[in-house]
């Protein structure tokens, strides 16, 4: 995955980051976004969200970077 791009002020291009995430998620995108929504609304705790995020990302990308 290419490094994130920055604008003239040195800020990250969040649209580029979101596109990279969408590509990494592939068909798991809707499930990931639902898990994120559930986390933000308090239906999942951090440990539960991490489980689902790793599940949905690891299928397409192998090893997760930390």
Oligomer category: single chain
Major β-sheet profile: none
| CA distance, first residue to last residue | 14 Å
% residues in beta strands: under 5%
Shape designation: globular
Low-confidence stretches: none
Share of helical residues: 55-70%
Total DSSP E strands: 0
Helix/strand-derived class? mainly alpha
Q: Calculate Rg over CA atoms.
A: 13 Å
DSSP helix count? 3
Instruction: Compute the average pLDDT.
Output: 85
Element string (H = helix, E = strand): HHH
Written description of the protein model:
With 66 residues, the protein is mainly alpha-helical. The protein has a domain of 35 residues. 61% of the residues lie in helices and 0% in strands. The protein has 3 helices and no strands. α2 packs antiparallel against α3. It is globular, with a radius of gyration of 13 Å. The mean pLDDT is 85.
Which key features would you list for this structure?
single chain, 66 residues, mainly alpha
Q: Mind sketching the topology for me?
A:
Elements: H1 14-25, H2 29-40, H3 46-61
Helix pairs in contact: 2-3
Q: Concise description?
A:
The protein has helices spanning 14-25, 29-40, 46-61. With 66 residues, the chain is an all-alpha fold.
């Amino acid at each position: 995955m290419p490094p994130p791009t920055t604008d003239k002020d040195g800020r990250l291009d969040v649209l580029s980051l979101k596109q990279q995430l969408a590509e990494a998620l592939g068909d798991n995108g809707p499930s990931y976004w639902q898990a994120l929504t559930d986390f933000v609304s308090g239906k999942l705790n951090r440990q539960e969200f991490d489980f689902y995020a790793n599940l949905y990302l690891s299928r397409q990308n192998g090893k997760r970077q930390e």
